[in-house]
Amino acid sequence: xxxxxxxxxxxxxxxxxxxxxxxxxxxxxxxxxxxxxxxxxxxxxxxxxxxxxxxxxxxxxxxxxxxxxxxxxxxxxxxxxxxxxxxxxxxxxxxxxxxxxxxxxxxxxxxxxxxxxxxxxxxxxxxxxxxxxxxxxxxxxxxxxxxxxxxxxxxxxxxxxxxxxxxxxxxxxxxxxxxxxxxxxxxxxxxxxxxxxxxxxxxxxxxxxxxxxxxxxxxxx
Length: 221
Fold this sequence. Notes:
By secondary structure, this protein is α/β, with parallel strands linked by helices. About 30% of the residues lie in helices and about 25% in strands. Strands 3-2-1-4-5-6-10-8 form an eight-stranded mixed sheet, sandwiched between helices. A two-stranded parallel sheet has the order 7-9.
């Protein structure tokens, strides 16, 4: 059935305490900074395999394995929402599928309804690769199927998810003029968006119900 029309519980809650998964990553760090600046209390979840992050006012750091529900529960307990910037780095690691299953379990147990997830344009129908890019993509096929597998689980859950697809990520500064890609519009490997803009858009979703139980693709150019 179409879940998008059902009333969302998001509207009733004022979001104040948020968990950020993948907080030590390049987008995750920007997201933590922007969240603190916007007045949120942040639980920053980092990998327990050598990632580090300094505690500071309004940021508590928890390390663990995102594929273990009990580790995620430590970071989700008492939170109003969770934003995930977890990414798959190498083919075959199934980190998105496995961590999404754990996230659904932990969020349900912690009664965190609002889940905002960053993803890649490679997993969208809008992506029209150039023939050379197509060849490279064949090598990355397992990463895309890992993303699809995790997202299908999330979309089948009871959670108020938003999946935010971003085009190729850059380190450009924050630019408020990024755009939403229409369902029939195509994007390619030359389209890009800054990590700062993605972080900003992820944060905006905490106060915006427009994309609850929906997916959205964003780009700068």
